[in-house]
Amino acid sequence: xxxxxxxxxxxxxxxxxxxxxxxxxxxxxxxxxxxxGEDSPTGAYKRLYAAVxxxxxxxxxxxxxxxxxxFAKVLSAQQNxxxxxxxxxxxxxxxxxxxxxxxxxxxxxxxSAALEVHNDKENNWEDLPFVREDxxxxxxxxxxxxxxxxxxxxxxxxxxxxxxxxxxxNVVQGNAVANANGNFRGVHPPLxxxxxxxx
Length: 199
Known about the structure:
By secondary structure, the chain is α+β, with helices and mostly antiparallel strands. Helices cover 41% and strands 15% of the residues. The protein is built from eight helices and four strands.
């Protein structure tokens, strides 16, 4: 009887593990990358990343604010390039990463937001701007260049740099005199007499 109960418990645990495990061929990032249904700047970035990787220009446009699309049209005309080519990386080098890059420090204030995404190629954090437009979060590169985007506050990377700078400025500077405790007399040049100056 005990063996039957233990067997049932093991089967129940195993079925729970399989039910909660990775989906779609072991790729657990499929939902995370698409950002489907995630109404946040993070979800908008995930949709942008997925659209860039799929070379889906319409998908990229759907995550761009109106001012960002207008900005892309201006760039397209200035650079004499098709709009698709201007938008192909979604205005950010973070989309060059072979897999979804690290995302952190989502900050929202009213209808403006920012999100730090790791740029693997340059090994730094890009602070990407977002605005809430037509009920959705969208990348706000156009607003940033037009100076209409309101920052929701400093990003983590900037705060870390400021803290590091503050720490380096608080270091006590050493005395320029090599041996301040030495027994020495200061040497003063003799005062020049008026006769020495030819007067």
